[in-house]
Every structure is written in C-alpha cells, then in structure tokens.
C-alpha cells in the first residue's frame, strides 16, 4: 500500500505543481484540464483550463492534485502538512528555501533533538510543509 497526498486548489493547481516540480526537482507525469476530458465540451468554458488531475513524481514518491470548481471552493489547507524527509542538510536547506519563497516560515530550519535539520513552512499556495533531515549523509 502507498499513501499519496492529493492537494486541491482553487484554480492554482497548474502554477503550484509547476512550482513544486522545480522546487522538489521532480517531473510532472500527467496534467489534464477539465476541457481535455471526454466531457469537456459539456462543461462551462470558464472551467476548461482548470486542472482535473495532475501527478508529480519526485524520486519514487508521487504527489497528486487538482483544481476544484467555483461551486465547491476549498477554504484552506490547515490541519495537514506534507512531510519531506531528505538525506542531507544541503538538500534540506535547498528544498526549504525553494518552498518557502513567497510563503511563510512557521519554524526556521534548524537542528533539533531528533534531527540534523527540521523546519516548517506554509508555501505561497497555502500548503504546509515539514522538511526533515534526520542525519546528514
């Protein structure tokens, strides 16, 4: 069994996943708009460019997401964080810096009693992240 986070956005999915692909050095494997689906012609034109599904591969891990429709907006993404576990302090610093660009640092990346580096942030799309490097390798 694998657990894959699935993020829902209010129209920012394409921008967010392009940012995540760059920040996490991943590869977008799929990105489909509502307009590209078999029922796209039946949908209102203003929904055609929204993302119905995207899939980002980072190493052997998958992050997925989509946009919601205006009649079903999401308020925020509080109460959940995506935890990234990296192998080196340098990678922790790179990822933390990249993801926090335009967002807010909740806990600066620093040494803790359980990790060589740990930090928490909310990115510019409202997604909470925890970056953890247990040991520098």
UniProtKB/TrEMBL annotation:
Matches recorded under SUPFAM superfamilies: Glyoxalase/Bleomycin resistance protein/Dihydroxybiphenyl dioxygenase
Residues covered by the PhnB-like domain: 2-131
Coiled-coil blocks: none
CDD domains reported in the protein's UniProt record: PhnB_like
InterPro entries from the UniProt entry: Glyas_Bleomycin-R_OHBP_Dase (IPR029068), PhnB-like (IPR028973)
Pfam families: 3-dmu-9_3-mt (PF06983)
Protein name: PhnB protein
Taxonomic lineage from the root: Bacteria, Pseudomonadati, Pseudomonadota, Gammaproteobacteria, Pseudomonadales
């Amino acid at each position: 069994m694998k657990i894959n986070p699935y993020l829902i956005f209010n129209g920012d999915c394409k921008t967010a996943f392009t940012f995540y692909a760059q920040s996490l050095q991943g590869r977008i494997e799929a990105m489909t708009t509502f307009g590209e689906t078999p029922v796209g012609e039946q949908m209102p034109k203003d929904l055609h460019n929204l993302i119905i599904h995207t899939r980002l591969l980072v190493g052997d891990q998958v992050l997925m997401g989509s946009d919601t429709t205006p009649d079903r907006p999401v308020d925020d993404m509080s109460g959940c964080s995506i935890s990234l576990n990296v192998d080196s302090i340098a990678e922790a610093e790179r990822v933390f810096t990249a993801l926090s660009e335009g967002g807010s640092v909740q806990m600066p990346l620093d040494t803790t009693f359980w990790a060589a580096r740990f930090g928490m942030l909310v990115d510019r799309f409202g997604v909470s992240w925890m970056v953890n490097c247990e040991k520098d390798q």
